[in-house]
């Protein structure tokens, strides 16, 4: 497996592999070596949040793996002469799960009640050999949260997928990864909803042409305010110093 290169946008690292599957290989090799990893899936919206939120920016700077999730990130580097391939977080998570051995396990955490269970069931239909250590929705009381943390510490899953939204899933990982120090922690945003069949990913043509954001806007027009991060990111990234 080739080494990952580290690029930078707005003071944030982006780890680049010329083959997207290398990310999954790299993460699981580290895990086998007893090294945990926190994965951040960087897009323009998160980059703009980090620009306004110093703790989030510092967290991303200290993360073991930051992948180019958004079209804005990829297009920025292409303007710099770097031909990156976009690696959506959902595809990285799928690549990791597909490579897990029978003795390894995954925990699904986040989403509305019932969604994590449905996502896990979908994965066990895809791969009956997949070992699901557990599932937990993201709406817990303080008492339930403490019990959940004890459960996570006892289970020690290989991979922990968090669907808590940005930046909550990133901060939650940073604050709690000591519970499972050897695990691969991946924030997957709305991936549980897709695996559970509640939402659909954009058709391949949109994904392949960096227009997944446009399909999301068509399906969820209320997202238009969030989409304003794209032009703001373009201006900020190109003038950042």
What is this structure, in a nutshell?
It contains 13 helices and eight strands.
Determine Rg (CA atoms, Å): 17 Å
Main beta-sheet annotation: 6 strands, parallel
Structural class computed from helices and strand pairing? alpha/beta
Instruction: Tell me the total number of β-strands.
Output: 8
Strand order of the largest sheet: 4-3-8-7-5-6
Number of helices: 13
Helix content: 40-55%
Report the β-strand fraction as a percent range. 15-25%
> Could you name the ranges where pLDDT drops below 50 across 5 or more consecutive residues?
none
Secondary-structure element sequence? EEHEHHEHHEHEHEHEHHHHH
**Average residue-wise pLDDT:** 90
Distance between the termini: 33 Å
| Shape verdict | globular
Q: What's the number of structural domains?
A: 1
Give short descriptive properties of this protein.
8 strands; 241 residues; globular; two-stranded antiparallel ribbon; alpha/beta; six-stranded parallel β-sheet
Structure description:
With 241 residues, the protein is α/β, with parallel strands linked by helices. The chain has 13 helices and 8 strands. Strands 4-3-8-7-5-6 form a 6-stranded parallel β-sheet, with helices on both faces. It has a two-stranded antiparallel ribbon with strand order 1-2. A hairpin with a 2-residue loop joins β1 (5-9) and β2. α1 crosses α5, α2 (44-52) packs across α3 (54-61) and α2 (44-52) packs across α13 (229-239).
């Amino acid at each position: 497996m080739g080494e990952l290169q580290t690029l930078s946008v707005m003071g944030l690292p982006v780890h680049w592999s010329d083959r997207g599957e290398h990310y999954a290989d790299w993460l699981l090799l580290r895990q086998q070596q007893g090294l945990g990893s926190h994965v951040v899936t960087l897009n323009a919206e998160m980059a703009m949040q980090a620009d306004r939120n110093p703790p989030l920016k510092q967290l991303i700077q200290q993360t073991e793996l930051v992948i180019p999730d958004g079209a804005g990130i990829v297009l920025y580097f292409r303007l710099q002469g770097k031909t990156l391939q976009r690696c959506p977080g959902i595809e990285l998570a799928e690549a990791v799960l597909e490579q897990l051995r029978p003795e390894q396990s995954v925990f699904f955490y986040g989403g509305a009640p019932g969604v994590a269970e449905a996502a896990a069931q979908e994965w066990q239909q895809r791969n009956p050999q997949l070992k699901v250590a557990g599932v937990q929705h993201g709406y817990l009381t303080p008492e339930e949260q403490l019990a959940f943390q004890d459960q996570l510490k006892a289970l020690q899953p290989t991979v922990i997928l968090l669907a808590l939204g940005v930046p909550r899933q990133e901060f939650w990982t940073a604050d709690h990864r000591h519970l499972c120090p050897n695990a691969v922690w991946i924030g997957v945003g709305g991936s549980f909803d897709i695996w559970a069949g509640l939402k659909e990913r954009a058709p391949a043509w949109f994904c392949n042409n960096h227009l997944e954001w446009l399909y999301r806007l068509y399906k969820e027009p209320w997202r238009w305010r969030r989409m304003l991060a794209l032009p703001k990111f373009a201006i900020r990234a190109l003038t950042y110093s």
